[in-house]
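User: Okay, second chain of the day. Same drill as before: sequence in, structure tokens out.
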Amino acid sequence: MSVIMLKIGGSVLTDKQKSSTARPDQIDRIAAEIGDSIDSKKLVLIHGAGSFGHHQALEYGLKAGLSQANIKGVWPTHHAVNILNSMIIDALYRHGVYAVPVHPLSSCVLKNGRIEHICLEVVEELLAAGIVPVLHGDVAADLRKGIDIISGDQIITALAKGLKADQVGVGTNVDGVHAKDFNTIEDISPANICKVKETLIGSRGVDVTGGMYGKIMELMDLASYGIPSLVFNAEKPGNVSEFLQGTCKGTLIHGD
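Assistant: Same drill. Structure tokens below.
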């Protein structure tokens, strides 16, 4: 089964400076581009939580693990992300894309903040049925810490490995990976990753999952399995369609 993995960052879908604030025009445009370009492709969509989750996770200190002091923050954090997830699925339906949520809270187990298990069977069955699974950054059970935050970047890497994805894209609000001089780095590989680490610009707004640096490290891990990925600007109209058609420009991350 040929599978495309697409992750849209929370910075594109939400205003990360304001708690639980969506960008409905962007959500609708991206859903429309997916609807226009998906055809019979097998697509797994993952979205960042953006301001729907990062603020709550920070407020309750969930990255520190579960305690009696922060246990009350598990539901508000998941609920916030679920609201955004529902907005995205509603928009996909409006544009003829049959999608359903697959919540990491009930399909993933972490160990020290890293995915120990993710339920591939659910995703595989949905894809085989012609349904688009939509996953997202979330709070999830952790075997060591009790609870932790799982990023959409970690999810896309785990699923791409498990599904042996043919095409992987990470849509952000910039044209690719930017150095400090704001020029786009055209490709990242083991040959230049050390230099890239020194020049990466951090993400704007509240982010408890590692920002651009975290994205690159996840995608470099994926590249080591022979699966390249493209970081591109999903905020630019037409780019999501171009990615699905294999013609989009951005930063290619590969293992060669």
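The chain has one domain: 3-253.

User: Thanks, on to the next one.
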